[in-house]
Amino acid sequence: MADPSAPDVASAGAAKGAAPFSAYEFMIAGRYLRTKRKHGGVALIAMISFFGIMLAVTGLIAVMSIMNGFRNELFSQLLGFQPHVYVDTYEMGPVRVDQLVNDIEALDGVASAIPVVQGQVMVTSDASEAFIQVLAISPDDLAGLDVIRSGDDPYSRTGLTQGDLSEFGTGLNGGDVIVLGQGVATRLRVQSGDYVTFLTARGNSGPFGVTPRRKAYYVGAVLAAGVSTIDNSLAFMPLDQGQLFFNRPDATDMVHVRLEDPDLAPDYLASVGELAGLNSSVFDYTQLDPAFFNALQFERTAMRLIMAIVVAIAAMNIISGLVMLVKNKSRDIAVLRTMGASQASILRIFLLVGASIGMLGTFAGIILGILFVVNIGPIQDFITWTTGAQVWDPSVYYLYRVPAELDWSEVVFVSVFGFAVSLLVTLPPAWRAARLDPVEALRYE
Length: 445
What we know:
Number of helices: 18
Strand order of the largest sheet: 2-3-8-5-7-6
Radius of gyration: 33 Å
Order of helices and strands: HHHEHEEHHEEHEEHEHEHEHHHHHHHH
Oligomer: single chain
């Protein structure tokens, strides 16, 4: 009795001289994929391979999207306070600094250029003391910072948590109102409306050396930047007051440049450096802590590599299925060869079998991964509801949701990689099928 899974002789004969990837090759590949196990098919192994590739691709998209979301959230919080490019203006006069600020802001892609005075102080309250970094900045520039404007979002945990900026910069020489980081306020056990005392060594020079300067300031607001290292060592004071307190009359220490796209900061070093001159130091935020930013990039690359290996392992199941298929269909292959099918045609048939599994699994994984990323909020709510536990504590991460941002370049990478791996693992068994000797296969038939 003839094997119902065997291809029609007429079809094979009609295929003689057919072009590569002709209809009969697709027809035979499809029949092999659908053949039941009792007829030597690989339906079960094909399904296992399909689901393995689908889940691996879904995991790759989900993991990379969550990592992209975390990276963007971290950068948005970190760079909501920190500038993207720094320019040293310690040796520049006020007129030169003003001209430099105007020239930098005229560059395409520059959002702002802010002159600042900075220094370290010892701050004390009735309860405690701490060493912090103070930035002296104009009231308008402070109000324009992203970290300040983020407080307008009711779901944001950054921005002003106490007080306001209504009195910041008012009064003689900028006034005595300051803004403290939330971590500093917690350590000092103060809040908006209290007084703290600043002490700095950058005071007046006298016959007995430099006399430290000490002054009491009113806490007008408390600011949460969302990054503990900033919140625990941050304070703002008006620019005029900072120039007076740090003994920098009419001068500034730095110009903080913010860009519309922070990722392009290294590209602006040359143009900003040309405007600043040879004697000025110009550097971007990645150079402040290169180990940290390099670690972020390495982690992203390493995670992509690990998940890609998972996709490759899932695709390996295709080999076992095709090896079994070639072994069980050796008689069919011999018949096709005797009817005129070429080795290349046999190779393409089995390539189509493996590539179909990989392509369909990759496509299904992409769809499932995109749905997972788009609906990560409801998924988080469902996990919280079923477990009865808060799986994402906003008081720790400063985020109400697991951040996930879909990067279409990652989707393209996953698509190409999944299909390429599926095609490559199909080559060995397909090559074996193409090299099968029809005489040996039919000798005992």
